[in-house]
Structure formats: C-alpha cells, structure tokens
Design a protein that fits this description.
By secondary structure, the protein is α/β, with parallel strands linked by helices. Among the domains are: 115 residues, FAD/NAD(P)-binding domain (3-Layer(bba) Sandwich), CATH 3.50.50; 105 residues, Enolase-like, domain 1, CATH 3.30.390.30. Helices cover 29% and strands 19% of the residues. It is built from 15 helices and 25 strands. The strands form 6 sheets. A 5-stranded parallel beta sheet has the order 4-3-2-8-20, covered by helices on one side. A 5-stranded parallel beta sheet has the order 11-18-12-13-14, covered by helices on one side. Strand 15 and strand 16 form a beta hairpin. Helix 4 packs parallel to helix 11 and helix 6 crosses helix 7. The longest helix is centred in the middle third of the chain and has 26 residues. The chain is globular, with a radius of gyration of 26 Å. 43% of the residues are buried.
Length: 546
C-alpha cells in the first residue's frame, strides 16, 4: 500500500497533493482557480488559472514515499493502480454505505485489501474525541498515521453524551414543552454533520482510516477482524469507555436505561429515578426537572458533584430541590430490579424507590476487552503526564485511562498523546482543564479551589453576580436559581492566578478564561487591568480581580 507523504512539522503538504474533498474547495477552484490558500491552482490542460474548462479530478492517492522501504509487491501494485486512501472494509465515504466521496471497491480489490500489511509510524486505536485529536496531532508532526475504528467517528461524546445532551439543553432553553421530541428529530442530522467535520479534519492531515476492529498480536502489530494486518512504531490507545451498570436488571431501555440510551426512546415518562451524583447525573436531573418531570435523584454517601467545590455543589442541590427534585443521598444504591412494570432501586440499608424508568449514571468502565493488551506487554493502563504507559512505545488517552473527566479533557489528552507518540515532548495538566456541570445554574471550576488550598498562603477574590450589569439585567438575587458567584484563587507571594470556581450563567466561560490565565502565568494585577465588555460573564471575573 502506498503510504502517505510525510507532512513536515507545522507545515502543509505540497499543493499538488491537496485533495478537494470539501465541495466548497471544488467550487472555489471552478470559479477562480483558487484553493483559498492565496495560491492559484495549476491547470493540467495548459490554461490559465481561473479559466473555465474541464476540471481534472486530483489523484486520490499520496506519493509512495514512506520512511521505511519494506513494502510488499502487492501493496506497491495497488499503489500504482491509484488505490484510494480509505482503508475501511465498508468502502470510502460516498460508497454504497452512504458516506461522502470516493469510489466503489470491487470484490477483487476488497480481497487484495484484506491481504494487505499496512505500515505506519503511529497507529491510533479508537475514533472518539481523544483518538481523533491524537491522530491529527501525530500527523501534523509529520508521521504516517492510521486510525482504527469499526464504528462512526466521534465516540460517545458525539453520538451519546455531550452532543445529545447539549442539544436537549438548547431545546429546553427555547421551550420546555416538547423539547425532548424536538431534540430527537434534530439529533441524527447533527450527529452526521459532526462526524463529517471530524472526517474532513482527518483527511486534511492525511490520516488513514481503517474501518475495522483490531487486536494486538505482538508489540508492534495488530490484526483486524476483516483479515488485514497493521504494523506500527508507536500506538495510542483511545478506545473510550462504556457506561457502568448496577447489579440486578441490565439496561433494557424500557425500565432501566443509561444516559447513552435515552434518545433511542420516543418519549420519557412523567416520573423517573436518576442514579448517580456526578456531572452526568446532575445535567440529566436539571434538564428533566426543567421539563417538569418528577425526578428522584439517588446518590451515594459521596454526594452531589463530588469532584466539585462543596459550597457550589450544595447551592445547585438547593436550587434543584426548590424545583421539586427529591434528593436521596447518604446510602449507596445497591441493585436495581424490574417489579410490576417499574424499576425498583434498592439502597444499602433496606430503603428502595420505584418509578417507570430508572436512568443509571454512575460513571464509566474502560472499553479494553478483546484488544489483546497482553500482547503489548501491558498489565495496567496507567499513564504519566505525557500519556505514556509502562511500555515505551504505547500511549493512551481519553476515557479508557480513567482520567478524562470531560470531552475537553479527552481532547487535551489526545493532543498530548499524539505529540508524545511522534517524539515531541508534551505533557497535559489535568487540573488546568475546566470542569463544568451544564446545569442551571452552571457549576464550574479549574485549578485550585478554596477547599484544596486550605492552610496555604493564598489570596481569594470573590464577586457575586448581582454586583454586575449582567446580574442587574437578569434579575440576579430575586430568586435563588438566578444567583451567581465567582471566586478567584491567587498565590499570595507571586500574585499568579491558581484557579477559580464559579456558579451561575456563563460559569464555564469564566473558568475557561482562568485556564488561559493560568497557562500564561497571569497575575491578579494583570487580570484586574483587563476590562471585559459588559454585560457579560467575563466582566464578573475581571471585576473580582479588582
């Protein structure tokens, strides 16, 4: 197989190799000969750039200039025949399976593909947020990269968690009545568009897609379930995770469900039980209560939003109880059963609660089964700050490591793993990635919190939202669920910003700005000299510093 031409670090491949996979680029070339990069496109027929005429399709393949010389005769023959870049058993996007672009693959070609040995510098196993981010970053560093994923690109974030729930939140904000139905109607199209965006980004940097399931057979080789083999110098595991379940009745979608499954239902019952006090459970309870469902929220002794600032988490709990949510905490949920057509959630100690539907949001379990990790020599999937495992050429990123608490964290880990696998020194800092519960009000934090710095020499700056123009316009202070607060933590000796917590509208944007300030080593005085536009969330942050 022809390997992609290496991409120079920080640069783009020669213009002649750039593919017009996006229709806008093709239209631009037809109109004025420009690819939108400030360079005219060369005409193979000798005409001037921009002249109307026959548009020759650029070759689908890349020049066969790999770093290693070992290449089978069959692979070389296929490269000379102009084999397309997609390695998926289901054909290139746009083939019979309904994806974009590409040509149909004959039975003979498909058989030849199945016998191929694919050689790359970096193999990425998993096509979620972390995997895509890792593949793109490794390719940007000039490495030949293959991404192995049997399913759609985007992972749980695109297809089951982040995108669906942000869509539901958007619809509830517009109008609570009928929000779930409207979200279901729009979801398939948004999933398709998001997957297309990821696919275009992968194509743009020359990442090869292997649409198959892989299993490692030794430290530098894996085999796919459709009969192919792939060798690599470094590998990144980004296989994601599956939602955990309680003992007892397995999620069936009818009476017991995971957050991932809810959008497969046509409607939701009036009464539900949500099990799990983390951010996923909090966001689900918030949306359900805003749609006026009766919700019982069951959590263990750790309580509500255990990884967030206690004061802010309790403030959210108070708001939800005022909305009618029944909070049950202090006793661990032990099992769940279906009794008389209803889900029965039993707690340690004997108490139980029943409703037509119970949604279990108690975290996730790394998806590692069937990968053959023992062939890599891996016993555990612990990673260091550079996302490297105990095996020098094996890296991991995202939910499969147990460290990614959000889509942003998964993307940060993926970028770090991609650079590390390409030989570029890189580290990711978990505490500098914001944590946000997209509730109403939002709860957010980044870096150090008041609880974590207790006893240290730090300075706190606090501001209530009702002291800002935005708070005045929103009526902050008239109702508890409209109150807002930002607290800034700074080093007393250097003045550097160490972290922040925020409650209220725009809290996520506030802590994201603080994450940037931390990254740049900004001091409290420098932040105080920034005058944000008012009304706005960042106005509260800069005023807090002053």
């Amino acid at each position: 197989m022809a390997r992609p031409e290496p991409r120079p670090p920080g640069g783009r491949r020669p213009l002649r190799a750039r593919r017009l996979s996006h229709p806008r680029a093709a239209r631009r070339l037809l109109r004025d000969g420009s690819l939108g990069r400030g360079e005219p496109a060369a005409r193979e027929d000798g005409g001037a750039p921009g002249d109307r005429g026959t548009l020759e399709r650029l070759p689908r393949g890349r020049p066969a200039e790999g770093r290693r010389a070992r290449r089978s005769a069959r692979a070389a023959a296929r490269a000379r025949a102009g084999e397309g870049r997609s390695l998926g058993a289901r054909g290139r996007p746009g083939g019979p399976d309904g994806h974009r672009g590409g040509r149909a693959v004959s039975d003979t070609e498909h058989e030849a593909k199945n016998e191929a040995v694919i050689e790359v510098d970096v193999a990425v196993v998993g096509g979620g947020v972390a995997g895509v981010s890792a593949a793109i970053e490794a390719a940007r560093q000039g490495k030949a990269v293959a991404l192995i994923e049997p399913g759609p690109i985007g992972g749980r974030a695109t297809h089951h968690t982040l995108l669906p729930w942000r869509l539901l939140e958007h619809e509830v904000d517009a109008k609570a009545e009928g929000a779930f139905g409207r979200a279901r109607e729009r979801l398939a199209e948004l999933r398709r568009r998001q997957e297309e965006r990821w696919t275009l980004r992968l194509e743009d940097v020359g990442v090869e897609r292997v649409v198959a399931r892989g299993r490692f057979v030794d430290a530098h080789r894996l085999e796919t379930d459709d009969g192919r083999a792939l060798t690599f110098d470094a590998v990144i595991l980004a296989t994601g995770a599956d939602a955990r379940a309680l003992d007892g009745a397995a999620p069936d979608g009818a009476h017991v469900a995971r957050p991932d499954d809810l959008f497969d239902r046509e409607s939701l019952p009036e009464e539900l039980i949500v099990v799990g006090g983390g951010a996923a459970g909090a966001e689900l309870v918030d949306s359900l209560s805003r749609m006026e469902h009766r919700v019982t929220w069951v959590m263990d002794e750790v309580g509500l939003l255990p990884s967030f600032d206690r004061e802010l988490a309790e403030a959210l709990g108070d708001v939800l109880m005022e909305r009618g949510v029944k909070l049950v905490h202090g006793k661990r949920p032990e099992r769940i059963d279906v009794v008389d057509g209803a889900a029965k959630v039993s707690l340690v100690g004997g108490h139980s609660y029943s409703a037509p539907l119970a949604v279990v949001a108690i975290g996730s379990r790394p998806r590692l089964d069937g990968l053959g990790l023992d062939a890599l020599g891996l016993e555990t999937l612990d990673v260091d700050a550079g996302c490297r495992t105990s095996i020098a050429h094996v890296f991991a990123a995202g939910e499969c490591t147990g460290q990614a608490h959000s889509g942003a964290a998964a993307e940060a880990m993926g970028r770090c793993a991609g650079r590390s696998a390409a030989g570029v020194a890189s580290e990711w800092e978990k505490d500098r990635v914001p944590r946000v519960a997209r509730t109403h009000p939002q709860v957010a934090q980044v870096g150090e919190t008041p609880e974590r710095v207790a006893g240290r020499e730090v300075v706190f700056h606090s501001l209530r939202f009702d002291e800002t123009v935005a708070g005045l316009l929103d009526g902050v202070g008239e109702r508890d669920d409209q109150k807002g607060l930002v607290r800034l933590v700074c080093d007393s000796a250097t003045g550097k910003v160490l972290g922040a917590t925020a409650l209220g509208r725009g809290a996520g944007e506030i802590v994201s700005a603080v994450a940037l300030a931390m990254r740049m080593g900004v001091t409290e005085d420098a932040l105080a000299d920034v005058f944000a536009a008012a009304p706005g969330a960042l106005d509260a942050l800069t005023r807090a510093a002053r």
